[in-house]
Specification:
Length: 174
């Protein structure tokens, strides 16, 4: 899959809060789904860590948004709800790999979002985005380890066709 670099233009504070909140809520719901559906301890532990990390980030977003008078979605929108529903429809045999792949995609989208968030002209939001990027960096290593442990043949094939976890910041699939 060919990748292109998306410019990291600035993002409005209310847009950032909404998009980041929805991303966190989606990752949390996918994490809960993974805890319930997986038969692999590595996936369960990873999902529990995602739930904890995204819960902290979501609380940070909500705290800052409340101080700034910005609205935080309290539920998923239709697009994000559909992502969770599609994951729930995966067969037991396909679930773990599909979950790991969704975490790779989620990592890239979140990295671009939080890098854009660092450019918000609000020091609280840009600082929160920087904190979230630190968590994402740790998640990157966890995703690599998870994928290698549950589907080493898939990861090797994917690594040869997509350099997802090693692309420069801002690179997104076409």
């Amino acid at each position: 899959m060919k990748r292109e670099t998306i410019p990291l233009e600035s993002i409005l504070p209310d847009t950032f809060v909404t998009v980041a909140s929805l991303a966190c809520r989606t990752a949390i719901q996918l994490g809960h789904l993974a805890v319930m559906r997986t038969g692999t301890e590595a996936v369960r532990q990873f999902a529990e860590q995602i739930i904890a990390d995204c819960g902290k980030t979501l609380a940070d977003i909500a705290h800052i948004a409340a101080r700034k008078g910005l609205a935080v979605p309290d539920d998923l929108d239709e697009e994000h709800r559909r992502v969770v529903e599609q994951m729930n429809e995966k067969s037991a045999g396909d679930f773990d790999s599909a979950y790991a792949l969704s975490m790779v995609d989620g990592y890239h989208k979140a990295a671009v979002l939080y890098r854009r968030g660092q450019r918000v002209k609000n020091p609280d939001i840009s600082a929160m985005a920087s904190r979230a990027l630190i968590l994402l960096e740790a998640r990157k290593q966890m995703i690599n380890s998870l994928f290698e442990s549950i589907a080493p043949q898939d990861w090797a094939l994917m690594a040869n066709t997509r350099s997802d976890m090693n692309d420069p910041p801002g690179a997104m699939p076409r």
